[in-house]
Amino acid sequence: SIETEEEWQFINHEIQKRGTWNTSTTNAWLIGLEKKDGVWIWKNMLRLLMKLPGTECQPTCFKNSSYIFSKGKIYRFYNNEVCSILGGYLVSIETEEEWQFINHEIQKRATWNTSTINAWLIGLEKKDGVWIWKSGQQLNISKWRDSEPNGNDERAEISMNGSLFNGISRNDKGDAYICEMPGECLNITFKNSWYIISVDGESWYWSRHTCSSLGGDLVSFETQEEWRLINDEIQRRNTTNYENKWIIGLKKRARNWTWVSGRPLTISKWGQGEPSGEHDAAFMYKRFRNGERGVFGTPNNESWKKQHAYICEIPK
Fold first, then answer.
1. At residue 157, what are phi and psi to the nearest 5 degrees?
2. Which comes out higher in pLDDT, residue 188 or 283?
3. How far apart are CA 298 and CA 270, in angstroms?
4. Contact between 247 and 281 (Cβ < 8 Å)
């Protein structure tokens, strides 16, 4: 997203020194500029346009599980992976009472897909001819729509229209999705935002895409109080690989570190000797190499190639 004359000058200077592998045409690079409803807008602003009035993405709790209702989809084979990274799985609706809860929640929400009936992918799959929930339980409540499922269906979605199940094929792109996280109720909030702290990892770009599908972005720390809240939270957590560092929304643009929200970096929480290296993204560390807690650091060449946990911030 090239948002200033200074940033354009920087990008212009850099591409003059480079070439692409395509030598048959003029060298060109794809940028994050898209036309939305007749208006050209940068990628990092799309989430502001796509946020629908009257919807919410904040997790809700039922018995011993938390639930997150996404607004958009991710690549069709990736939805359950996202739920797994968040510490759960695609929702398993195992009782009438739980179905009533989900029914109540989706009636208050909408997805970004306004061209069809709002529907969310759920954790119901056909294995060896039997419909099984992601939790491992067999389907024991019948909420199929009339004439559903058909013989080619292998997965299912729940529709806002009656909260009934529709069968979909393995290759169906689907729509939004619902994650269920057993255990502690997720309800990390500060002022007008709530936060998701993942336990497993993705690349920087997929991490940001996941946050976007939930209606938000990678976290931007704009006050000391906000940083202190998240630091307190990560001190009580571990990532699955015990690296205990999380991707945050701090990015270097035109040699300046700014948040993906567009706000400048106003609180300095860099670890000793940071920022360093050639990379333009940052982590938040549970404990840095010298024992500092909650500080920021940049990746080295090896760690940059790996997948890492991340923190999303979603407007209420």
1. -130, 160
2. 283
3. 9
4. yes
Averaged over 70-83, what is the pLDDT?
A: 67
Helix H or strand E encompassing 120: strand 119-127
CA 163 to each of CA 76, 120, 213, 227, 263: distance values in angstroms, whole numbers, following the listed order = 21, 10, 21, 39, 40
Q: Which residues are bridge partners to 289 per DSSP?
A: none
Give 135-200 as a DSSP string: TSPBP-S--BPTT-S-TT--EEEEETTTT-EEEE-TT----EEEEEEESS---EEETTEEEEE-SS
User: pLDDT at position 255, please?
Assistant: 82
d(CA 133, CA 93): 8
Residues of the chain with CATH 3.10.100.10: 60-182, 189-315
CATH architecture of 60-182: Roll (3.10)
Q: Is the pTM of this model over 0.70?
A: no
* Bridge partners of residue 287, in order along the sequence: 293
Q: Give residue-wise pLDDT tens across range 257-277.
A: 999 988 889 988 999 999 987
* Mean pLDDT over the full length of the chain: 82
CA distance 259 to 126: 43
Query: 227 is written with which tokens?
Result: 């940083």
Amino acid at the residue 304: W
Architecture of domain 189-315: Roll (3.10)
Side chain identity at residue 292, one-letter code: E
